[in-house]
Specification:
single chain, 208 residues, alpha/beta, Nucleotidyltransferase, domain 5, 5-stranded mixed β-sheet, 5 strands
C-alpha cells in the first residue's frame, strides 16, 4: 500500500517525469498535490499499470487533486541542456505552474517529494528524493500517471504526422521497430539528436 505522505503535517507535492529514455518526443513532467483524505488502491507507479488503467486513473487524479500541472520539455531544450537537466527543469516548471493555479496561499506546497535520486532545489521549498518513489508515495504515483498519459497523448498526435515510426505503439522508446524505421527513413524534427539513436550511430538523414 502506497503512503499518502512523508510528512503528514505538511502540504506535500509529488513530482515525476516520463519519457527520459526515449529517442523521440519530449520528456514530460508533472506535479500533484493530493488531499489529506485521498485513497485509491489501484494507483501506483505508471509503469506497473496498463494503458487502460492509467487512462481510468487520470481523470480521477485530475478531479480529486487539490492541484496538478504538467510540462513538456521539447527536443531542442533536451539537446541543449541534456536529459537529466531537462527532466529536472520539467519538474520545476510543473511545480511552478501548479503553484500559479492555487488561489489560497495556505495550500502552497511546503515539501516536495521527488521520484529518483537527483533534484535541484526549487525556490525555498525543501524536498526529498525517493528512489522508486512512484511505487511508494501516492503523490509521486499520481504525478507519474499524469506525466505518462500526457506524454503518450502527445506521441499519439505526432504519430499522425510520421506514422512510419509507429509512435502510437512505441511512444518514442528505443524499440527494435523504432530503430529500424530510423535506419530506413532517417530522423525527424521530433528525434533527440543528442541521443545515440542507433547502436552504430552513423550519419542520419534529417527528415523534414
Amino acid at each position: 500500500m502506497l503512503k499518502l505522505s512523508l510528512h503528514p503535517n505538511l502540504i506535500e507535492c509529488g513530482t515525476d517525469e516520463a519519457g527520459r529514455g526515449c529517442l523521440a518526443g519530449p520528456v514530460t513532467a508533472a506535479a500533484v498535490i493530493l488531499p489529506s483524505d485521498f485513497k485509491n488502491e489501484t494507483l501506483t507507479d505508471s509503469k506497473q499499470l496498463s494503458e487502460r488503467k492509467r487512462e481510468i486513473l487520470k481523470p480521477i487524479i485530475e478531479t480529486q487533486a487539490i492541484a496538478y500541472a504538467f510540462t513538456h520539455i521539447m527536443m531542442g531544450e533536451i539537446n541543449e541542456i541534456n536529459i537529466l537537466n531537462a527532466s529536472i527543469l520539467g519538474m520545476h516548471r510543473s511545480i511552478e505552474s501548479l503553484i500559479r493555479s492555487l488561489s489560497r496561499k495556505h495550500t502552497y506546497p511546503q515539501h516536495i517529494l521527488v521520484d529518483g535520486n537527483t533534484f535541484k532545489p526549487f525556490n525555498d521549498i525543501p524536498h526529498t528524493c525517493v528512489v522508486k518513489g512512484d511505487s511508494k508515495y501516492l503523490p509521486i504515483a499520481a504525478a507519474s500517471i499524469i506525466a505518462k498519459t500526457e506524454r503518450d497523448h502527445f506521441m499519439m498526435r505526432i504519430h499522425e504526422e510520421y506514422p512510419m515510426y509507429n509512435w502510437a505503439k512505441n511512444k518514442g522508446y528505443p524499440t527494435k521497430e523504432h530503430r529500424e524505421a530510423i535506419r530506413k527513413y532517417g530522423i525527424t524534427k521530433y528525434h533527440r539528436t543528442s541521443f545515440r539513436l542507433l547502436p552504430e550511430q552513423y550519419e542520419l538523414d534529417f527528415k523534414q
